Amino acid sequence: MARFFFDTGDRDLVLQDEIGVECAGLEEVRRVGFEGLIDLTRDALKGVDGQKLFVEVRDENGDKVLRLSLSLQIKLMR
Amino acid sequence: MSPSSSSDILIRKLQTISDIREAEIAVLKSIPIQEKDFSANHDLVREGDHPVYSFVVLDGLIGSTKYTSEGKRQITSFFVGGDIPDLHGLHLSVMDCNFSTLTPARVGFMRHDVLRSICDQHPRIATAFWRSTLIDAAMYREWVTNVGRREAYTRMAHILCELIFRLRAVGRIQDHIADIPITQAALGDALGLSTVHVNRMLQELRREGLIATTGSRMHAIDWPGLTHAGDFDTTYLHQKNPAD
User: Fold this and answer.
1) Does the CB of B149 have a partner CB in chain A at under 8 Å?
2) Which residues share a beta bridge with B97?
3) Does B200 contact A38 at a Cβ distance shorter than 8 Å?
4) Chain A touched by B202 (CB under 8 Å)
5) Which chain B residues touch A19 with a CB distance below 8 Å?
6) Higher pLDDT, B244 or B10
7) Which residues in B lie closer than 8 A to residue A16 (C-beta atoms)?
8) Which residues of chain B have a CB within 8 Å of the CB of A38?
């Protein structure tokens, strides 16, 4: 088990994870990050075209491990 | 700071929610309480059990939990010192949820036959026990609302307010600083949130200057601000003389 830090945010504001989550490997880091992105989306997606949300994972040395992101496109069709 | 005997802890809690008098206190003191220590994450009672005891929490934090068929855990309520989480087992013979320690905990077991005969003979005690289970139900209603309808930030603030308020009510803490050594995973299971989002919400509460944390110590540095953020109104806890 190692501790990973999941920073979350959008273009305007990134919240640094100061607590971290113990994960058994990269597979788990990915699952935990994805679950975090779902919650972040539910909470922080504002219905603004082009909005981007992300979860970026650091290991204990501060090295970047993984980035999950999504962006919203809203296009009027008529 | 914490009351000395297990009877005192039980009596103090019942006094915060009901009108028990000297006569009843003497009877409550006579209940044999078998104390036992448990490490964190121990199931005290499991779904499907037919318990012949109910337990009073003497120290630590207990959660009532349910599992989905996929194995996902929902913590449906917290219980602190003085609470009798499975008191409904006195009347409902099959346990419909689990009670697990969320931190190292000490609990006291009381025999159902003893509690039953006391309730038969002392209506004020029966009423106090009834009130206790009614207030537990009120907390479950609040938690459904919290998990189902409040935003994650409000949800987190609410649960911290409830814990601190309840710990204060039974004299476990004097101020707005509580040692809450539960894992973020457990907080997530209580809030229906991922661990990553639990960390984010704690970070946001810190950033707003509402809480400060050192390890498992949680200090509500702006109590009015935290109760406002948490949409927290103490009515559902039905305390006789609520401290703010």
Assistant:
1) no
2) none
3) no
4) yes
5) 184, 199, 202-203
6) B10
7) 203
8) 194
Would residue A76 count as lying in a domain?
no
Decide: helix, strand or coil at residue A41: helix
What is the pLDDT confidence band of residue B56, given thresholds at 50, 70 and 90?
very high
**Given an 8 Å threshold on Cβ–Cβ distance, is B197 in contact with A32?**
no
Into which CATH architecture does domain B146-237 fall? Orthogonal Bundle (1.10)
- The two tokens of residue B168 are 């204060």
Its ipTM equals 0.94
Closest-approach residue (CA) in chain B for A35: B194
Rounded Cα distance between B51 and B25, Å, is: 25
Residues of B in contact with A13 (CB under 8 A): none
Tell me which residue in A18, A36, A43 faces B151 most closely, judged by beta carbons: A43
The domain containing residue A18 runs over which residues? 2-71
H/E segment holding residue B144 = helix B123-149
Does residue A8 fall inside a structural domain?
A: yes
pLDDT given for residue B3 in this prediction: 46
B152-184 residue pLDDT tens? 999 999 999 999 999 999 888 988 999 888 889
* All structural domains of chain B with their residue ranges: 6-132, 146-237
pTM of the model: 0.93
Nearest chain A Cα distance for residue B199, angstroms? 6
How many domains does chain A divide into? 1
CATH fold of the domain at B6-132: Jelly Rolls (2.60.120)
Q: Residue A13 domain-assigned? A: yes
What is the pLDDT at residue B174? 87
Tell me the backbone φ, ψ of residue B125, rounded to 5 degrees: -70, -40
Q: Where are the beta strands (DSSP E) in chain B?
A: 34-38, 43-45, 53-59, 62-67, 73-79, 98-101, 105-111, 177-179, 211-214, 217-220
Measure in Å the smallest separation between the Cα of A9 and chain B Cα atoms: 9
Cα A14 to Cα A8: distance, rounded to the nearest angstrom:
6
Q: What is the pLDDT of residue B242?
A: 63
Residue A35 covered by a domain = yes
Residue B12: predicted pLDDT? 94
